[in-house]
Amino acid sequence: MCAPPNLGLRLSQAGNRGGRRHNENVAAMLPSHEPSAHARLVGVLIDLHCHTLPLSQCSNLQAEELADLARARGLDGICLTEHDALWDTRDIAELGRRTGFLFLHGMELTTDAGHVLAFGFGAGSPAFASVEEAARAAEPAGALLYLAHPARDGLLRVTERTRTLFASVETQNGSDSKLQNASASGISRSFRLPGIGGSDAHTPAEVGRTATRFDAHVTDEASLVAALRSGRYEAVRLDC
Ligand SMILES: [Zn+2]
Ligand SMILES: [Zn+2]
To answer: Which helix (H) or strand (E) holds 93?
Structure first.
C-alpha cells in the first residue's frame, strides 16, 4: 500500500500531509538530544530493512551515505539489518551523533525458514543453528522475529509452524514486486501483529522505497520493540 496511511494513525500535528514529514524531528528524537516540542509529535517513518558495508558485503552503501539519502527521501530513521551480523551498540550511537539521524539496529538472519528480520536482541550473538533456536533466544531477550520477503521467488514459506515463531511478516519489501508484496500482505493477516515495511536497500537508488510508519515515539531499540509490540504501525510504499 502506498502512503498516505490506511490505518487512520494519528500523524504529526505539523506537516506530513503527503506522507513524509520534515526531518527536523529526527535530531530532536535522538537519545543524546534534549526533549523538545518536536519530540512530542507522533507518526515516525522508519525503514526497518537496510544493508550497509562492511557488515553486509552484498551492499554498496555506507551508513553515512544512507543517512543522507534517507533524510532527503523523507524518512525519520533507519534500522540497520545486516546479514547475520549486529552493529555494536556504541557504534550505532556514535553513527547517530555523527549524522544527526536516528539509527537503530536489528539484523537479518539466514535460517532454515528463510531470511528473518530480528529486532531487540541488543548486543547478543546473532548466530543461531535454526529458526527455532532463534525463536527460543528471542523470548527471554524480548526480541521479535518477522519473516522477510515471504513471497519472494514464488515460495510461500509460511506454515502453521512458522506462525508460532514469527510476530508477523514483511509486507512491503522495496526489492519485491507489487504482486509479491500483495501476497505477503495476505499472509500477514494470520499473524498476531501487522506486517512491516523496509526497503531492503543495498544501493542508493533503493533507499526509501518502503518503510514502516509508527504511531509512537521511536528513539532507540527499546522503544522500537515496544512500538512493534503495540501493533500501532503500518507498512507503507513510498515510491509510487
Ligand atoms: Zn533477505
Ligand atoms: Zn535484506
So the answer is: helix 89-99
C-alpha cell of residue 213 = 510508519
Proximal ligand: closest to the CA of 174: 2
Q: What is the CATH number of domain 24-237?
A: 3.20.20.140
Helix (H, G, I), strand (E, B) or coil at 66: helix
Cell numbers representing residue 128 in the block? 543461531
- Statement: residue 161 has pLDDT above 50: yes
User: 202 CA distance to ligand 2 centroid (A)?
Assistant: 8
Ligand number nearest to the C-alpha of 114: 1
146 CA to centre of ligand 2 in angstroms: 12
> Is the sign of the CA dihedral 111, 113, 114, 120 positive or negative?
negative
Which numbered ligand comes closest to the C-alpha of 48?
2
Distance from the alpha carbon of residue 37 to the mean position of ligand 1, in angstroms: 37
Residue 165, φ and ψ in degrees, nearest 5: -95, -30
Q: What pLDDT does residue 155 have?
A: 63
The pLDDT value given to residue 124:
66
Give 234's Cβ-side CA count (13 Å radius).
Answer: 17
Domain ranges of the chain: 24-237
Tell me how far apart the alpha carbons of residues 235 and 137 are, in angstroms, rounded to a whole number.
26
Separation of CA 147 and ligand 1 centre (Å): 9
**pLDDT value at position 123?**
79
| Confidence band of 159 (pLDDT split at 50, 70, 90) | confident
How many angstroms separate the CA atoms of 15 and 74, rounded? 12
> Hey, what amino acid is at 26?
V
Write down the pTM of the prediction: 0.83
113 — pLDDT class (breaks 50, 70, 90) = confident
